[in-house]
Amino acid sequence: MSWEAWLTLAVVAVAVLVLTRDLISPAVAFMAAVVVLLVAGVVNPAEAFQGFSNPAPITVAALYVLARAVEKSGALQPMVQATLGAGRSVRLALVRLTVPVAAASAFLNNTPIIAMLAPQVENWADRRGDSASRYLMPLSFAAILGGMTTLIGTSTNLVVSDLLKEEGYDPFTMFELTGIALPIALVCLAVNVLAAPRLLPDRLPPRREARSRGGRGFSVRMIVEPGGPLDGLPVAEVQKVLPESARIVYFERGGEGAGQIAPDKVLGGGDFLTLIGDTDAVLDLHEVSGLASSQQPHLPYEFRSARHAYFEAVIAPESPLVGRSLVDVSFLARYQATVVAIHRAGEPIRGHLAREPLKPGDTLLVISDRGFADRWRDRNDFLLISRLGGPSPVPTRQAAIVVAVGAAVVIGAGLDILPILHLSLLGALVLVLLGILTPNEARDAIDFDVIVVIGAAFGLAAAVESSTLDLAVANLVEDTLGGFGAHGAMAGIIVVTITLSSIITNNAAAALILPIAITTASDFGVDARAAAIAVALSASASFMTPIAYQTNLMVYGPGGYRFGDYARLGTPLTLVVLVGLLAMTTVG
């Protein structure tokens, strides 16, 4: 290989390593990689930044605006109400949930669909006395599967389409992917419904886990009030006055703590207690005489008034909170909200909550004014914000207009009246001009980190090609898997794409692999478009880990899942995608 190819390989490897360790955001990692390759002369400025003049990121930005209008207007609420039906059959309920979600995700961004449905599914399962873990992961997977079936269903399809055009081929049409993706999606949906009740453990979400099993829930830190009714009582007596599901897991006095505390240990004023309990228990603890929240000085005055509400907020992977504590970020000043408890899937937090480094997927129980969700819904700090006990959103009079605009974009693209870029921009402009979204709301709806990653991915793809790294890797694939023919070569490409998309973003994985896939396909007599479709769909097959896709992470905490739970259900779905794509990519 040339030195340019070695340098490109090294830069890409470092970027992937940095992302797997969550050291910096994907946008920063890939822009840094592009800049290094630009300075080294591997790519010129036009190649390095061609993605930012490409239609793909602009189209994705416009579709974010449309998705925000759908969410704000409640246009999907009739579908939500229809899916949450009666009946005790888990599989029937999964059909009612996953099929409409997959259909909607074929034309809308997945994130607002899951953001709208997840809290309501959790409440619905709670009312049924059921576990939300049976429904939330299949719900996320259904959204992923639906997004695979059309050009605008996921940004990855748009990115691959425009990269294909850069390679000298025609871009994908609106429904070109449907003939391949739809059968795969339908089989996966069937597996999703049939296998989920058997393969998914009966995890309980934070709200019910402690209540039902005495297990993990939210961690909350309280202080024994000096001179209060609990001052001088042994732990065994204090436990009797606590909510039934709450239990003490950590004790701290004078700066020294212990995870084990004897029942006859006498508590004193100023002692700190970390307790585990479900949402109800955490709220009830604030009513126990003699106990006060360690966050009491930071709680709003008369926080039980009608002006304030409790929210659950799930931390996003790119959030500025990741790796930092509540103290580090001055949470109260930044968010105008106070964290009263934290839930972390798989492990309780026993120490000082305000000084605990936060992780993606952590669920914060916060108290704030009722505008908290509106202020932070369109930022990258939280993946999901749901108000506890809040009313379900209702469709507004603007919902019909939003549906009409969305339908016009889809139909216009399907009939090739205008390119999808033009239609999506016109749709976004109409929504702003009609006042359905304000200019600020439209701007805030765009996830600029995703846009930067897409733009940078084009620069990395150009480096992979111009450095001849794609030829070197294609030769390696041929030498290693050539004995297995086209099936073996394409299986290697698909597996590498799925693996890479599980640890970095789908868009970046697709951009890096596409030049290699096209070169490999040419060597084995596989049609280049078939190889491109295989890359697009395998990059979207994000079923194996919670960090593989943002909707997986959105349901991670609320579903009470553990990291390995995703592979239980994700493995058979991934195998279906692999087999289906192999049957297609070796034709032609």
Calculate the mean pLDDT score and round it.
81
Alpha carbon gap, first and last residue:
30 Å
The general outline is globular
Largest sheet: 5 strands, antiparallel
Query: What is the count of DSSP helices, taking H or I runs of 4+ residues?
Result: 25
Uncertain spans, ≥5 residues at pLDDT below 50?
Answer: 205-216, 300-305
Q: How does the helix and strand content classify structurally?
A: alpha+beta
Question: What is the strand content?
Answer: 5-15%
Strand tally, please?
Answer: 9
Spatially, the strands of the biggest sheet line up as 3-2-4-1-5
**Which percent range fits the helix content?**
40-55%
Radius of gyration: 25 Å
List keywords for this structure.
588 residues; alpha+beta; 25 helices; 9% strand; globular
Would you kindly provide a written description of the structure presented here, covering whatever features stand out?
With 588 residues, this protein is α+β, with helices and mostly antiparallel strands. The model is unreliable at 205-216 and 300-305 (pLDDT under 50). It is built from 25 helices and nine strands. A five-stranded antiparallel sheet has the order 3-2-4-1-5. Helices cover 55% and strands 9% of the residues. The protein is globular.
Summarize the topology.
Layout: H1 3-20, H2 26-39, H3 45-48, H4 55-73, H5 77-83, H6 90-105, H7 110-127, H8 133-147, H9 155-166, H10 178-199, H11 206-213, E1 218-224, H12 235-241, E2 247-253, E3 256-258, E4 272-277, H13 279-285, E5 291-293, E6 308-315, H14 331-335, E7 337-343, E8 363-369, H15 372-376, E9 382-387, H16 399-414, H17 420-433, H18 439-445, H19 448-466, H20 469-481, H21 485-503, H22 506-523, H23 528-540, H24 550-554, H25 565-585
Antiparallel strand pairs: 1-4, 1-5, 2-3, 2-4, 6-8, 6-9, 7-8
